[in-house]
Amino acid sequence: MAITLTAGTSALADAPKEHLKSLDAKQIDNTIAPGTDFYLHVNKKWMEENPLTPEHARYGKFNILSDTSEARVKDIVLNLASTNPQPGTVAFKVSTIYNQAMDSARRNAEGAKPILADLKKIETTPHEGMTDLFLWMHGNYASPFFSAGIQEDLANSSVYAMYIGGGGMGLGDRDYYLKNDKRNKEVREAYKKLIVTQMRNAGYSKKDANRIMNNVMKIETALADSALTREESRNIPAMYNPRTFAQVKELYPNIDWDRFFIETMGIQSPEQVIVTELKSVDQANKLMAALTDREIKDYYLWKYVAQAAGKLSDNFSDASFEFNKVMSGVQQQRPRWKRALGATEGAMGEAVGQLYVEKYFPQSSKEYMIGLVENLRTALGKHILHLDWMSDDTKLNAIKKLNAFTVKIGYPDKWKDYSTMEIDPALSYYENMHNVGMWHQKDLYSKWGKPVDRTEWGMTPQTVNAYYNPLANEIVFPAAILQAPFFDPEASDAENYGGIGVVIGHEMTHGFDDQGRNFDAEGNMRDWWTAEDSKAFTEKTKGLGAQFDAVEVLPGLHANGTYTMGENIADQGGLRVAMTAFLDSQKKKGVDIATETIEGYTPEQVFYMNYANLWGQNIRDEEIRSLTTGDVHSLGCNRVNVTLRNLAPFFKAFSITEGQPMFRPESERVVIW
Ligand SMILES: [Zn+2]
């Protein structure tokens, strides 16, 4: 097969390192053998030395980076504020939002006042005005009953398509409404209490607040009943159901579609609408006809108050915190300055990001990363060509896709222009933040009918994270993840490949996980697999899913192997591909890793140790329960221990053999990419 892989370039030209940099050998717990529990072997000491503080539901190595990033952003924002900026400038807008978010005295004096006129509007709407009210809610506040919006067309990702789908549930997942075990009941009760408290804060009597709560629960439970399960939500092709505008009108006649798109988005009725969750929209349609005006208004009142709560007086945020306590186990609210920074970043993240990279992101980091990414790309190509379960036809398509990956590193080439965003210190914080939200919504809808701009980023540079976007077939690494322990120019290659190398491999593998594999080199949803290869892939994923299903995260609570499938495939792929890239890079440099040691460890050991190091964290039981319901990622300890138990080179590196808990017999291992 004549397939040219992108040529790899090695940016790692320096001499081998003798000392660990991202890792600290003193932190390794030698009383726990690597073959007993590798995660604890690497992380237990750190976990003991860094107990959770009351404000955190979990705290790990990722948080150390986020804290650094946050402290830098705080510096930037406070510096802007101290320059006494002119109205209309970015500095003025950023510092006004931050200062208003910090100004609890003003917000507490205003109480619920900023939202009272809108609540009254909902209350006093006559029956014949209910359609107007529905459109006003959808266009300006929350999306009651169902969701609607634009996104790249999955089947033709260079243009935008119109989507409608499920939504309207405050608790997000259907299980919270429908299941009757202790945990789900506990969350449900906390949610009911939250609704009553917030409506009381908004000025309603106890009796009215209780009525509102009961009507909200009735409606949201009905929506939950028709919502997809977490497992079903992994199946992207099943969520692509194009309907003509005429069909939508016929299928869901209780919604005024002739007015819907133009009045809520400023977009003329589209010729085609993609329905992502057929049952959910059907249920929304039925409910809208079956409910009384009183029930619908109560639901709207709550939707309105829920979206406003974070921007009002402290009694609202205190109530939200009481709810968060139940959800995540946190014992103390985040300090106000952190919440204020979060709001500022949500409003104008790229404005802050531009200043962040000027100050904290050296060009050399970008060059180093480009070299690393190309080495990883070459390594993944080798893996694909050597797969024993895939035909040459599918391999050819996979390589095409790999070669077409776009790589974004550090920060966008083009920054978002906030010049038309208006922030007025005379307005309340709530009004300003509402205007900010509307600005972002308008910005999104202005893209309708235009070609998709692929220079845009989905994360700010100061975010400690990375992503793969299947619709653009791109991998993206914001500046803030390029720090130790992920990446350090002073660290050994083994540490950097076990850190940022695995992250790069992880994002690349997302292009070939249970969801990403549905998209081709151009980012279009198209089946480029032979039927046999699809079957072989699915069989393998079943094996991997079963491994995670078998893990008990808390007594009686199991991990969800189907829901976390994509991330588990990506973790394994990332580890395998990064190791290949590491070995190749050392060969190219003429380093004989068989004889090299770093503080007494072999380079392979250091690679796996730094991977485990990334995921070290302390976490509360409540948070484990919430994440098991709502997070597609496995818990840190399982990303390490369950994933590594499939990898023969890991066993070899630490001489782990049959009889040790970390060992998994070859016949039970699952290797995908
Ligand atoms: Zn991922």
Mind explaining what this structure looks like?
- The protein is α+β, with helices and mostly antiparallel strands and 673 residues long.
- It folds into two domains: 25-72 and 340-413 and 425-445 and 456-668, Collagenase (Catalytic Domain) (3-Layer(aba) Sandwich), CATH 3.40.390.10; 112-311, Neutral endopeptidase, domain 2.
- It has helices at 38-49, 61-82, 90-102, 104-110, 113-124, 130-140, 175-178, 182-201, 206-226, 245-251, 257-265, 278-290, 293-308, 314-328, 336-360, 363-386, 392-404, 429-445, 493-510, 531-549, 565-589, 603-614, 621-630, 636-644, 648-653, and strands at 58-60, 147-153, 156-165, 241-244, 272-275, 406-410, 467-469, 474-478, 552-554, 557-558, 617-619.
- The strands form four sheets. Strands 2-3-5-4 form a four-stranded mixed sheet. A three-stranded mixed sheet has the order 6-8-7, with helices on one face. Strands 1-11 form a two-stranded antiparallel ribbon.
- Strand 7 and strand 8 (474-478) form a beta hairpin.
- Helix 16 crosses helix 21 (565-589).
- It is globular, with a radius of gyration of 26 Å.
- The structure holds zinc ion.
